[in-house]
Every structure is written in structure tokens, then in C-alpha cells.
Design the sequence.
């Protein structure tokens, strides 16, 4: 009985199981993301639907491109505005 060889086989089996788990987890999380993006997202500022392309780039986007731009422009001028509209 070669114990070293047996240990090698055991670790190979564990590695294969771990890989299968990783693959399954990757598939599950990508499914979750597509579900989230499929649901319509509306801009919290103007109420327009946020474009899919923007959600793919920024899944947590709360504003449409136009509102995000104007918020960023305003936030440069007023830190109070950032505190009120961006962080709360
Ligand atoms: Zn908007």
C-alpha cells in the first residue's frame, strides 16, 4: 500500500469536487445577475427606464445617464447636494 499515492488520489478527488462546486456557483451567480437586469429599473430622479446597456455596465445604477451626469455636475459644486442625493 502506497500511502503517498493514496493521499494524492484523495486530494485529486477533493480538487475535482471543488472545481464542480466553483462552476456551479459561477453559473448560479450569473443567473442571478441576468434576473436582476431583466427586471426594469427606473431612474430615481426622472422616472425614465434605465437603459440595459447602462445596467450591464453599472448593475447598481439608480439614475439614467442624463440624471447621473447632472448629479455629478451639481455634486462638484455642492458637497451638501452629494450628501443629500447620492449617499442617502
Ligand atoms: Zn433620469
Sequence:
Amino acid at each position: 500500500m502506497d500511502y503517498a499515492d493514496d493521499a494524492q488520489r484523495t486530494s485529486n478527488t477533493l480538487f475535482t469536487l471543488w472545481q464542480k462546486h466553483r462552476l456551479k456557483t459561477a453559473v448560479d451567480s450569473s443567473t442571478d445577475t441576468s434576473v436582476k437586469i431583466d427586471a426594469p429599473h427606473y431612474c430615481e430622479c426622472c422616472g425614465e427606464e434605465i437603459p440595459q446597456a447602462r445596467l450591464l455596465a453599472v448593475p447598481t445604477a439608480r439614475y439614467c445617464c442624463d440624471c447621473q451626469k447632472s448629479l455629478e455636475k451639481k455634486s462638484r459644486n455642492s458637497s451638501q447636494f452629494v450628501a443629500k442625493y447620492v449617499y442617502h
Summary: Helices lie at 3-38, 52-57, 65-77, 79-85.
